[in-house]
Amino acid sequence: MQPFLNVVNPATNDIIGTIENSTAEDVQNAVNAANLILPKWERTQASKRAVMLVNAASLIRTRAADLAALLTTEQGKPLTEARDEVLGAAHVFEYYASVCGSIPGDARMLPGYGYLNVIRKPLGICAAIIPWNMPVLIFAWKAGAALSCGNAVIAKPSKTASLTIQKIADLMHVAGIPNEALQIVTGTGDEAGSALIEHPEIRHISFTGSITTGKSVSMRAAPYLKKLTLELGGNDSFIVTKSADLDAAVKGAVKHRFYNCGQVCTSAKRILVEDSVAEAFTHKAQVLLDKYVVGNGLEKVNMGPLNNPEQLTLVESTVAAILEHGDAELVSGGKRILGPGNFYAPTLLKNVSPFAVSEEIFGPVMSVIPFNTADEALDIANSTPYGLGSSIWTSEIEMARKFAEGLECGVVWVNKHLILPPEMPFGGVRSSGFGRENGMDFVYEYTEPKSILFG
Ligand code: NAD
User: Fold this and answer.
1) Cβ neighbours of residue 379 under 8 Å, at least 6 residues apart?
2) How far apart are CA 14 and CA 244, in angstroms?
3) Has residue 208 been placed in a domain?
């Protein structure tokens, strides 16, 4: 096995760094170190943990420009998006600082039994397995929640997006979080990832990634009876009725479909538009996309490259197959952009057959699907195995309520999409996974109740 792996800039194909290709032995060393700190870390006053998280956020904010540039260079997203993500991570740590001292419990008299105390205990060592698309934010969600409750965290980033997370972890250590309470193990999913999943002393796995890997994680963690949070793929519908503010809906759809080159679990992947306004919607989207500048994220661009060559090939072959089968009409894009880097043109498809896009397309492809009635739109929206997020764009309150109730997913936005405040529980149903990140729900994931009954 190679001891190091190269990290490649997806815009230029240049090697920009290396990461350790960690082994099961490295994971064992991390577990040993975490075990040493746990008794002390668990008993650290909540206010002290909160100060460490706030200090970490402040250091991240101070170095946001450098961190964002590094994130762009390894992940590909435009600098403005990278900066948003880095500052978003700081915001998440500030939120979890506010949670440290408010972990709920219960204390009351149970007549006939005695006096009941319920305290919530941290789980111990928790693993955070992170994908390459929003690495810094997803790291912050998992590490912030687990640390705020007094757990030790071993995080494994994706091999194509580890460098910025490593730098942020260094800052968190400078902020006072003990090295052993937060450790980063880099490397491949097969080696380092598997070692985390199959380590008997790791009590919780928070995994974000594909459905295929998520199922495998679930099966391999089962013999150890580990707690799991699985945040898997999404195939979000973005539903526009004829009463919607069309300009706002088009702007929202373009923004939330092409953000991060379409590589977001809750991207607006299937755009369902009421038939009478579908042509106008598509035209307006095309006008916006015609002005889209694609290029190296370090320059002034709207969209960068896909993160890795495999993803580029997958997007390219998926679109080619849809068009070959006559399941959509190509309005613009539909091809890779030649030259170095994993660039694919922002692509607009109209009159898309819903069945052609029942699998998520993790790339810059907007699929406009016309519908005639609200019931038909709900059927299409709920027709995939996914259930992460969806949005409804309308000016009718009854319509908003009908969709909010009928959409089978973990998050419904009304006249918004892809807004993820740290206070809001986030996660999916069905094949999009289970468990919730963010909000107090994540605190419940990372703690377990202990009931103490006094006689
Ligand atoms: P992936 O499943 O290939 O990898 C995710 C992480 O799992 C990486 O760190 C990887 O190294 C690790 N991994 C891979 N194989 C493993 C194994 N056998 N054992 C243990 N760990 C293993 O996913 P990806 O390609 O990095 O990310 C893209 C996918 O993630 C998309 O499907 C996307 O929708 C999904 N995603 C979901 C959410 C969400 O919150 N629901 C968020 C972001 C991305």
Assistant:
1) none
2) 45
3) yes
Report the candidate in 178, 228, 237 with the shortest Cα–Cα distance to residue 207.
228
Nearest-atom index, ligand 1, CA of 196: 20
Same domain (yes/no): 242, 355: yes
Same domain, residue pair 31 and 176: yes
Check whether residue 148 and residue 222 sit in a common domain: yes
Distance 310 CA to ligand 1 centre (A): 14
Is 94 one of the annotated active-site residues of the chain? no
pTM over 0.85: yes
Alpha carbon distance 8, 11 (integer Å): 9
- Catalytic residue check, 74: no
Q: Same domain, yes or no, for 74 and 124? A: yes
Which residue range is the domain that position 326 belongs to?
A: 237-414
Is 419 a domain residue? no
The confidence score (pLDDT) of residue 1 equals 83
**Residues 112 and 87 placed together within one structural domain of the fold:** yes
How many domains does one find in the chain? 2
Q: Read off the pLDDT of residues 335-353 as tens digits, 9 standing for 90 and up.
A: 999 989 999 999 999 999 9
Do 191 and 21 touch, CB atoms closer than 8 A?
yes
According to DSSP, residue 35 is labeled: H
What separation in Å is there between the alpha carbon of 339 and the centre of ligand 1? 28
> Counting atoms of ligand 1 from 1, which one is nearest the CA of 209?
30
Residue with CA closest to ligand 1 atom 15: 189
